[in-house]
Known about the structure:
The protein has two domains: 9-49, no CATH class; 50-148, 434 Repressor (Amino-terminal Domain) (Orthogonal Bundle). Helices cover 44% and strands 14% of the residues. The protein has seven helices and three strands. It has a three-stranded antiparallel β-sheet with strand order 1-2-3, with no helix packed on it. Helix 2 (71-80) crosses helix 4 and helix 3 (85-92) packs across helix 4 (96-104). The model has no long low-confidence stretch (mean pLDDT 87).
Amino acid sequence: MRCLDCGTRMRAHRNRTIPYPESGIPNLWLKGITVYRCRRCAAELPEIPNSRRLHRGIADWLAQEPRPLSGPEFRFLRKQMGLRAQDLAEIVGVQRESVTRWETGAEPIGPPSDRLIRLVYGVWCIDETAPLPPHLQRIRDALRSIARKRHRPAKLVLSPAALAVR
Length: 166
Ligand SMILES: [Zn+2]
């Protein structure tokens, strides 16, 4: 491994604990990381294995953490789902500005929203490489369109036979 700045050979320092600002979560650190350090100019290059899987793992972990999410953690979950603040606002049923205020810490994230984003994440990201099970796909489709439809207080007519075969 050679330094990108000066071309000098770099030395591996294993098992380091380093901050991970790329996550957007200021207090998130990664441990067990190999950091390559240039012997000459002191440039450092951490070896982050497979950031795609890492981010998936971080999001899964966050969604299961039994304590309130911080604004940056909330934003991380949203981004992991590939949702814009506007998209999430529509799913949760709030104004886009509310999502922004939660994420920047200007406004506390209410307990229902904290729970809801975890549940949405659970439906959204069960396995991003494989198609969702059909029933979850339909719930996901409903989440996408729920905000664009008006509530119709009409009579709901369901066929038990049709429901059972889906
Ligand atoms: Zn160097």
